[in-house]
Design a protein that fits this description.
By secondary structure, the protein is α+β, with helices and mostly antiparallel strands. The protein has a single domain, classed as Nucleoside Triphosphate Pyrophosphohydrolase (Alpha-Beta Complex), CATH 3.90.79.10. The chain has three helices and eight strands. Strands 1, 2, 3, 4, 5, 6, 7 and 8 form an eight-stranded mixed sheet that branches. Helix 2 runs antiparallel to helix 3 (137-147). It starts with 16 loop residues before the first strand and ends with a helix.
Length: 149
Amino acid sequence: MGGDAGQAGDIEAEDARAQYAALPFRHAGDRLEILLITSRETKRWVIPKGWPMKRRTPPETAAREAFQEAGVKGRIAEAPVGTYRYCKRRMDGGYRLCEVEVFPLEVLSESDTWREQAERERWWCSVEEAVAAVEEPELKSLIQAFGTR
């Protein structure tokens, strides 16, 4: 089926577009915390992600998205911890299936100001809170598995 499907359920796997995401985390004492941000349009809790960038590796792309969308920098892993899929609403009202490769980012610094600050909120939370807050089932599972590693 083509990319102009009107419903998320009509989209087949071969239509999936690649994206790269950072899973920002830090240790607060003996507790692992995850940084979530809101999406720009729907204000859902998500992790920073974006489209592939020329001359950047997938982890470099994920790290750059984390800085632009959440104002955080740190050590990005070279290997993903997993992938998840979601349906991105397009400008024409259709949907695009995206497959997101997720790279852990150990946050070492947080900026007071960043590019998308006016468009997003950020929230440090426990693994359990993050799992409850995100909507995508595969992302929930990925965060839960990351929290128990």
